[in-house]
Write a structure and sequence with these properties.
With 265 residues, the protein is α/β, with parallel strands linked by helices. It is built from 9 helices and 10 strands. It is globular.
């Protein structure tokens, strides 16, 4: 749908699927999966992926050029606001002043659940420092609204825990968030397969971000293609407007006028 663009920080994107660049077997597979997904925005964990900070190692920028993809540096692996801010300032230097970033501050290394207190603190610093912040957070609608009020350009609530593949566990909270904020809402974390992505889009989310669901699939490139279709189908279903749910229908779906009556008395 050429006229149904995703607008993020004033820029238009035709794809509503955002894809991570980690966990693939090599950069060649990374690029193949990205191409199959149709994604235009790619996330990169600055602490785990070389984009120039390690001069003697292969750089992701060679396989996934910034001229073709919009980079979204993220703070995966950060557990404090200070670490997150420092990491994204480094990313801005490495990417020639790039300001669109993904903020995530984790609470513990087991669940990878967001620490919303540290996230809010980091968001305040980054926004005041000129960053355009897309923020990973819990599915708490109050926190989501606070992050929007701080100036974040997108709210990215989890569907379930990072890397769990459990899908959307609380659709009601996602709907509450979408009712309360005016910036894009992008489901981040927990998607396991294409139907999860479709459900997120059918709910009215503006996009879906994923990494493990593609990279950990038996065939990552094929799964990337499936995710592309799932996001597109879910978006079209949302725009089309589904029929109301009923326990049963008193009216048949086919017309009955003109049907010859039974001869039985």
């Amino acid at each position: 749908m050429s006229n149904d663009a995703l607008i993020l920080a004033g820029k238009s994107y035709s794809s509503r699927l955002l894809v991570g660049t980690g966990k693939y077997k090599d950069f060649t597979e990374t690029r193949a999966a990205l191409d199959a997904s149709g994604a235009e925005i790619v996330t990169v964990a600055i602490r785990r992926t070389n984009i120039g900070q390690n001069a003697n190692e292969p750089s992701l920028l060679d396989a996934v050029p910034a001229s073709k993809f919009t980079y979204l540096p993220n703070t995966a692996g950060c557990y404090t606001a200070d670490d997150a801010v420092r990491t994204l300032r480094l990313a801005r230097e490495l990417l020639d002043g790039h300001s669109l970033v993904k903020l995530e501050v984790l609470g513990d290394p087991q669940s990878l659940y967001p620490n919303v207190i540290e996230t809010i603190a980091a968001a305040k610093t980054l926004v005041s420092d000129g960053f355009q912040v897309m923020v990973y957070t819990s599915d708490d609608p109050i926190v989501a609204k606070q992050l929007e009020d701080i100036g974040c350009v997108a709210i990215m609530p989890l569907a379930s825990l990072i890397g769990s593949g459990m899908g959307i566990l609380n659709p009601w909270n996602l709907q509450l968030i979408m009712e309360r904020v005016n910036v894009p809402v992008i489901v981040d974390a927990g998607v396991g397969t294409a139907s999860d992505a479709a459900i997120a889009m059918e709910l009215g989310c503006d996009g879906v971000l994923m990494n493990t669901a593609i990279a950990a699939a038996q065939n990552p490139v094929l799964m990337a293609s499936a995710m592309k279709k799932g996001v597109e189908a879910g978006r079209e279903a949302y725009l089309a407007g589904r029929m109301p749910k009923k326990l049963y229908s008193a009216s048949p779906s086919s017309p009955t006028a003109g049907i010859i009556a039974s001869a039985r008395s």
